[in-house]
Amino acid sequence: MSKLMVTCGYNFEHYTIENYIKFCSGECVLGTGFLSNLSASFADTFGTSSKGYENKLAKAKDFAIEKLEEAARSEGANAIIGLQIDFETFSADIMGVVASGMAVYIEKIGEHVIEEKIYQFPVINYYPDLPFRIGHLLYNKTRACAQIDLCVYPGNKLQALNADFIVQTIFDTQYIYRDINLTQIETNQEAAVFDLEISENELRAMNGVIVHVHKYINNNQCCTNTGSSQMTSYKIPELLNKKKEYGIDVIKDYVKTEQSWTCLCGMENSNTDEICQLCGRSYGKYIGTEFEYQFDKLIERLENMESSSEIYQYLLSQSSDQEVDSIAELLEKIETIVKKERIYGDMRDSCMKLVKEFYKRK
Question: What is the number of other CB atoms lying within 10 angstroms of the CB of residue 259?
Fold first, then answer.
C-alpha cells in the first residue's frame, strides 16, 4: 500500500488541493511504567544511555502517523496537510501520542490538462516605424480562440492595439477579421487573445497572415499608425524557420546599400550604426534580439542557483536603483516566495517560473 504524502505545511509544491475531505487523527498509548522510571531524566547528566526511551517515543509517533494515514485513506484522501504531533500524559505510567491533520485529495499540476490543438501561422508583413513586431497568429482549435505573440523592444510598454487580420490561403484567397481589439497586453500574457471560430477545412488552407495595425497604446499614449506596411522577403516555410531560429521578430534578411543597412527585424539603419537602433543586432549576425540574448544569459545564471532566496539577492545586487524600480513588482513576489520557502522547503521552481513570466512580458 503506497504511503500518503504528509506535510506540516498547508500545500505541496507542483500539486493543487482538489478537495479538503476531513480532519483526521491517529493515536498511540504508552504504558507499563514508561514514565515512572526517572533514570531517563538523568541520562545526559550521568552519561547513561536514554536511547531506549527515545526509540519508544519515535516508534509511538510513527505508529500514530500510520493510524492517521489509515484514517485519511479510508476517507478517500491521498495526502495530509497541517500534520501536528501532540503528547498527552494521562498518569505517571501512561502517555498518549496523537497525530492529527487535514485529509485532502491532491492532483499534480498539469497531470490532467487536455491536450490542445494549436495551429501557427507567421505574420508576413511589418511596419518599420512601429516599436514592436507581431510574430505569429496562433489558433487554438480546442478553445476556438486566436492569439498573437509579440516582440516589444526595450524602452516600450505596449498595452493594447487595434488591428485587422487578413489570413492568406494556399488558393490565393483571404479570410478577413476586422477591428480586433487586444487589451492589457503589458500585464497579462493571455490578453492578446480573441475569440474566433475557424473550421477545420479553413485551417487546412491557411498559410500566412497580414496584420493591419490601426491604433496602439504604448507607454500610456494612444498612437495612430500612419506608416506603410511592408512584406517579408522570405517564403513562408523559410520565414517560419528563421523566426524559430533567430527570434519571432525576424521578417527579412540583412540588406546593405551604400548609405544604409536593413536588419533582420526590418529596421533600416545608417552604415555608421554598428548595431540596429531597434532590436540591438549587429549587421550579419544571426542571433536573437539583444534583449533575448540578455534574457537567456540571466535565466542560465539563475537556473544554477539553489534557492529562491539566492535568486532574490542576485537580482537585487545586479540591479541599479532605476532597474530595481522597474522590477519592484517581481522582487515583491519573490520575497513572498522566500518567506514561504522557509516554511515549506524548496520553492526554486516556482520562483523561476515567476521570473520567466515577468521578463517575457517585458
Answer: 9
Average pLDDT, the chain: 83
Over 90: is that where the pLDDT of 13 sits?
Answer: no
Identify the weakest region by mean pLDDT among 13-27, 65-79, 91-105, 292-306. Answer: 292-306
Q: Tens of pLDDT along 226-279?
A: 999 999 989 999 999 999 888 899 999 999 999 999 999 999 999 999 899 999
pLDDT at 39: 47
**Cell triple for residue 113?**
490538462
**Which among 11, 24, 10, 7 has a CA at the least distance from the CA of 108?**
11
pLDDT class of 324 with cuts at 50, 70, 90: low
pLDDT the model gives residue 84 = 92
Spatial CA neighbour of 150 closest among 178, 182, 195:
182
Does 115 or 113 have the greater pLDDT score?
115
Separation of alpha carbons 270 and 276, rounded Å? 9
Q: 77, 12 in Cβ contact below 8 A? A: no
Residue 244 neighbours by CB under 8 Å, 6+ apart: none
Q: Which residues contact 253 (CB under 8 A, 6 or more apart)?
A: 233, 234, 264
DSSP string, 149-208: EEEE-TT--EEEEEEEEEEEETTS-EEEEEEEEE--TTT-GGGSEEE----HHHHHHEEE
pTM for this model (two decimals): 0.53
Tell me the three state secondary structure of residue 38: helix
How far apart are alpha carbons 23 and 21 in whole angstroms? 7
- Per the structure block, which three cell numbers stand in for 303? 537556473
Stretch (H or E) spanning 39: none
Please tell me the total number of residues recorded for the chain in this structure.
362
Plot region of 121 (φ>0 → left; ψ -120 to 50 → alpha; else → beta):
beta
